[in-house]
Specification:
By secondary structure, the chain is of the alpha+beta class. Helices cover about 15% and strands about 30% of the residues. The strands form two sheets. It has a four-stranded mixed sheet with strand order 3-4-6-5, covered by helices on one side. Strands 1-2 form a two-stranded antiparallel ribbon. A hairpin with a 2-residue loop joins strand 1 and strand 2. The radius of gyration is 13 Å and the shape is globular.
Amino acid sequence: MKKLRVIIIRYPQGFKLQITEQTHRSTEFGEGKPSYYFCASNGINLKSVDHPALVNDTRTLYVRGKETGQDNMLFASGDSTYVPLRDIPLLCRVLDAVAEYNKHFKDK
């Protein structure tokens, strides 16, 4: 069973994300061997490469990967300090993608 948990923290300036639980990383994150990614049906990509990050342009949530020193960091999108309020729909899609990942790998 593979599991991923992401929380979204609200600040007056916007939002930050944090990976609070992740059972598999890097080449064991996705399906098949090796596979470091999962593409949700809503177009959001979940990838385990280096460290957590949200890239709005490519609709990709990077989760924990090779760089373990940044596993518990709070992060936003790109070089921004916070995910802006206007990106709430993106955050909802990210949470939907994480839920789909967990459902997909529930019994695997």
